[in-house]
Amino acid sequence: MKLRAIHRILSILILILFSFSCASDLDYNQVNDIKLEPIFISNLAYFDVQANQFVTEGVEQNVIFDAPTVDVFSEKFFTEKLNRVDLFFEINNTINRSYRMDLVFLDRNNQPVHSTNLIVPAYSGVENIVTKTEIFQNATLDLLKRTTKITFTLTMLAGPPLSESSVGSIKLRSGVTAYFVVE
Amino acid sequence: MRKKILIFVLFLTVGSFSQNKQILYNFTSVPQSLLTNPGSDVKYNWYFGIPLLSGISTNVGSSGFSAYDLFADNGVDFNVKLRNVVFSTTRKDRIALNEQIELFNGGFKIAGEQGDSYVSFGVYQEFDFMSYVPKDIAILALDGNRDYLGKVFNLGDLNVKAEMLSVFHLGFHKKINEKFILGARGKIYSSIYNVNSTNNSGYIYTIPSTQGVYEQMIYSNLQFNTSGIAKYDDEDYDPNVVKDITKRAFLGGNLGLGFDAGLTYYPKKNIQLTASVIDFGFIKHTNEVESLTFKGTYKYEGVIPKFSSGNSAEDGYQEFKDAVPLDTLYADYTTWRPTKFNTSIQFSFEEERAEDCNCLNYDPETIYKSAVGAQLFVMSTPRTPLVAFTTYYRRKIFNSLQMKATYTIDSYSYKNIGLGLSSMFGPVNFYVLADNLLEYRDVTKANSLSFQLGLNVIFKDSKK
After folding, report:
1. Which domains, ranges and CATH numbers included, belong to chain B?
2. Start and end of every DUF5723 domain (chain B) (predicted)?
3. CB contact under 8 A, B216 and A42
4. How many CA atoms lie within 13 A of A5 on its CB side?
5. Is A64 touching B (CB cutoff 8 A)?
6. What ipTM, to 2 d.p.?
7. Per residue in A98-123, pLDDT tens?
8. The pTM is what?
């Protein structure tokens, strides 16, 4: 009799357990709604040109130029997922001359797709920093994505002459903030 | 609703977790308990499992979050839920699935003068999946690095493995004397496919710098091994999945060896000690292996115009791709099976004085109606071992119905109550074991669930 009672209680317990068991509605299709919006920061460019690099054998070189490859924006992942790019430029000039820096963004056919410039005054003993931030979205971003090369041109403007022993440097720090949308 | 429960249960069946079979362990009225301890004190003349129905076992677990947290149909944006899950978990949280289905299983007794011996054998199919939450990589994907200046992202958070295999086993168990039973089981593993990426390390950080805007460093030592799936990547290959799986399941796959060992010891008539080691073994992957590596170190400074020769043509991105290349290797590799260790102590009481009592027989199930005990389970994982502690109460309700109730504490839950029932109707043994019963209030919110059931035909000694 006792056994039967235990059995009965047990059966009822099991029955209660399974009849009260339930599952909330789940919707696995929500995975399709996934939208990632990461924001990455990275270096774009850097240089630190000493004053005496503008002087060759006693003669001033007023224009120096370089065109390194920058094809990261044209990578497939970037062209598809990039939504906005901020480029940040900072020039710190400690040379007693003023400068103009021209940047020209070139596509694979060496055609310019974007250009920008910064003018930095001559150093006079106090901190001498010029910054500029450019934002690329929509049409301007599409142009940026075609970039495979950037030409850097530093033009020294008129001022007191430099010699091989002139001090100071002109320093560029440039960073990228890339806004992605991955759906 | 009903359909969704079904899908969920199916999901449980396909995947499963901690592999702790705390209810089955030492529940000797179920012959499958021999698979958790080859030295279990079983009693039968011979038995066989109903093919495909004798042992169905699933186990899912997820510490840190549940299916409900991610997939609840509650109007909350999925991306919000995903963020909540990522930011509320740690790199130690994991998802694990384990599933086993016995194709066939059987055993018989060899009567001996000193003591009986038992042979058991069978084939089962098993699926294992385990992944830690790749927390830092998930943060990078969700937020990027802009708001994490100075944080070192740990690439070692990526730790995942999955394997489908079939296991051929043959076990032998011998009663050394009235107090001591020893058992061992040899296993041949036939891996159907394997994916594993468990020995990763590396980091990425970005900190402010005076030279350049940032100091940005990546050190990566990532490797992703696969076997048995490479050819499905090939577009020209016309796959015949069923044929491939069948062939590999029956020793045509990557093979491995392993063994189980276990014992049962009665220091006193009503005290029982047991211990077992399960799946101490490895698989050597030599067929259809393909590994991806992403290894290297790179400090990203951006482009640095030199202004010297007019065109320095420096390309930081190409340099990065050269420094941390994505390579494909075809080298053999070895994986270790997750090894399980069980031990238990049991005190039996409520002695039953059967008329035909064989007082030399130490079997606690025939002499004692009730027992309490404690069990410890430890399983090797790619990081710290998984530990679970169980206390239980076992009771013979009728001669034909045994019950075992368990309470388990582990890293997934501290309120895991389980119940197992094993019945004998004539020679037919039916068992059903389920744990985390409290979670059945809403299975989608459960952090772990396991379920085992099966049908066997058992012939016991006519003489008790």
Report:
1. 2-459 (2.40.160)
2. 38-435
3. yes
4. 2
5. yes
6. 0.78
7. 999 999 999 889 899 999 999 999 99
8. 0.79
